[in-house]
Amino acid sequence: MKKLFLAPLLLSAVFATTGCNDAEATSPAKETVIRHGLIGSDFPILRASEVPATSTIVFLSGSVPGVSNPDAPKGSMEAYGDTEMQTVSVLNRIEENLKSLDLTMGDVMKMQVFLVGDPAMEGKMDFAGFMRGYKQFFGTDEQPNLPSRSAFQVAGLANPNYLVEIEVTAVRP
């Protein structure tokens, strides 16, 4: 019995083949990935992204926040900060990790966000705080690329004072 192997399609004429217009899909300067924006929304995530077979996919492990306030009691919630501060701390760590791999935040294609319920918000995740931190790194004039993304509220993370853990997948052209 012959095995049939179907190689992924390498799409170069993205806008013509996907039926998307410029408002719905963007292609980064490297022209190695296809990013499909949300239809009828300016929410800063993608609805989908495509990676050509000629690219390398890089999976980064989850990152957690560092201490944001060294003057706070060691190991306390105050030492790590609120959801926005923790998000910025985590994304800075991810940015450093990507840089060490010769990648940038603009190469991030997929993001999974794990948010713990914030005690200051009656145990509900602070999605607005996360978004304030996220928008400092994605969809900016300096770094306009957006990832496809999921966000989850989880019961807890490795440290009881962590409110945020983020895992990303990047693409190396």
TrEMBL record:
Q: Tell me which UniProt keywords the record has, alphabetically.
A: Signal
Instruction: Recite the lineage of the species.
Output: Bacteria, Pseudomonadati, Pseudomonadota, Gammaproteobacteria, Alteromonadales
Coiled-coil residues: none
Q: Which GO terms describe its molecular function?
A: deaminase activity
* GO CC annotation: cytosol
**Which InterPro entries does this UniProt record tie to the protein?**
RidA_CS, RutC-like_sf, YjgF/YER057c/UK114
Q: Signal sequence span per UniProt?
A: 1-18
Q: Do the record's keywords include Signal?
A: yes
The record's section on Pfam families has: Ribonuc_L-PSP (PF01042)
According to UniProt, the name of this protein is: RidA family protein
Is NAD a UniProt keyword of this protein? no
Which species does the entry assign this protein to?
A: Alteromonas alba
Family, per entry: Belongs to the RutC family.
